[in-house]
Amino acid sequence: xxxxxxxxxxxxxxxxxxxxxxxxxxxxxxxxxxxxxxxxxxxxxxxxxxxxxxxxxxxxxxxxxxxxxxxxxxxxxxxxxxxxxxxxxxxxxxxxxxxxxxxxxxxxxxxxxxxxxxxxxxxxxxxxxxxxxxxxxxxxxxxxxxxxxxxxxxxxxxxxxxxxxxxxxxxxxxxxxxxxxxxxxxxxxxxxxxxxxxxxxxxxxxx
Amino acid sequence: xxxxxxxxxxxxxxxxxxxxxxxxxxxxxxxxxxxxxxxxxxxxxxxxxxxxxxxxxxxxxxxxxxxxxxxxxxxxxxxxxxxxxxxxxxxxxxxxxxxxxxxxxxxxxxxxxxxxxxxxxxxxxxxxxxxxxxxxxxxxxxxxxxxxxxxxxxxxxxxxxxxxxxxxxxxxxxxxxxxxxxxxxxxxxxxxxxxxxxxxxxxxxxxxxxxxxxxxxxxxxxxxxxxxxxxxxxxxxxxxxxxxxxxxxxxxxxxxxxxxxxxxxxxxxxxxxxxxxxxxxxxxxxxxxxxxxxxxxxxxxxxxxxxxxxxxxxxxxxxxxxxxxxxxxxxxx
Lengths: 207, 333
Description:
Family (chain A): Belongs to the SKP1 family.
Number of helices of chain A: 9
Helix content of chain B: 10-25%
InterPro entries (chain A): SKP1 (IPR016897), SKP1-like (IPR001232), SKP1-like_dim_sf (IPR036296), SKP1/BTB/POZ_sf (IPR011333), Skp1_comp_dimer (IPR016072), Skp1_comp_POZ (IPR016073)
CATH topology of the largest domain in chain B: Methylamine Dehydrogenase, Chain H
Helix content of chain A: 55-70%
Distance between the termini of chain B: 65 Å
Strand order of the largest sheet of chain B: 1-2-3-4
Shape of chain B: globular
Oligomer: heterodimer
Largest sheet of chain B: 4 strands, antiparallel
Keywords (chain A): Ubl conjugation pathway
Protein name (chain A): Skp1-related protein
Order of helices and strands of chain B: HHHHHHEEEHEEEEEEEEEEEEEEEEE
Region (Disordered) (chain A): 158-207
């Protein structure tokens, strides 16, 4: 049972018919309608294998998704509810892929890069093909015609030198910490040894 | 936020797992994916350099299955293949809408054309039954009307041979080219600065000469005749140094690669001889239903056109048929 005051977020358009409760890694719960949840092949397979009934939804815990936070899930389910009932797209063979981003999706994705990449990760994990297509297409559009330097700036990718320098600094910090911890341990051991000797030497141990 | 690199993994593009990055890269046009993406950072570089990334794309996106003889070739690069396939797909997608220009000049059937480039300019050499050869400047043809300033034909020789000219071939290194004709001769030409075509050498092979190839040993040219002969000519002395008559009819198809000479004839045989031992065929195919009208060789793939309307792809190492297509109509060269 959710002990802390985990807020239950009700969808704006409270879904009728069968719905499921899904929770992100920060405890925020979502009510997702059946057609919407079928957009996600991962979740769809889960509910069909588990044969969730309406009773189960009420009594049991919400389906936990360990690696996606509430904010991203909100965007994901917003997309699913809007596209619920749509067919899952077949694999497109054209190069580069012909994906048209509908207006609703374009507005949904007017978010900063961090949220966009989280959205891509979520779409990949939950296996929502079309959401993955439109979000990847958005990133590809952002990258269109840009030189490597510009790409590094837009996507905040450190250059290889910066990367190596950061790695080196991190390693040195680690080693320093390890050394200090070892030093500390050695010092402690000394004092406990000395105490032990004192105890042995002293006539009475307890006061 | 996202620039905090100490404890939390920054939610940047790099935080995406490799499979997602690969999927993302398929949305980027191939030219950018090959030239720009690897320069962004090491991780992207590793993904783009991975042969498997491109092999999978060739199989899934382009639905192409490479023959074993191509996959095993030491020069095979999936990245290059993917890009070339993509280029060709784009090029031939709407070929009916491409521009067609007719260049008049010859007075009879033109039996051979040869495209080549020199100093970044594109040329075409044509040989015709009117016994003349012409050198065309392709950029001029494409840019406007034929005139004194914009000459389409930059050189010609109207008495190149005394019979129909069957074939033209060019040696890239020496830049000399060779013509074969019904008048039984093979002639060597060079293009002088200023545009004239100069005949350098000539040799008589005893009967109408059909095919010619310069892809064999350096300083050698291979040609075939209607009198069943396949001859090797040394270009320095311009004399026949080796030949065979293993075919029983006119030899109409020729392809050469190094020491391997592939020939096909109306006797329905296709064979390969080694230059160093011309008396025996190393590979041999007899096809009762049809004969090969022309051969084209690249790496280990031998592409042939047949007299019964097929295009057949062979593994050049063992003459196994890799693939076969049926084309409607009559096949030429």
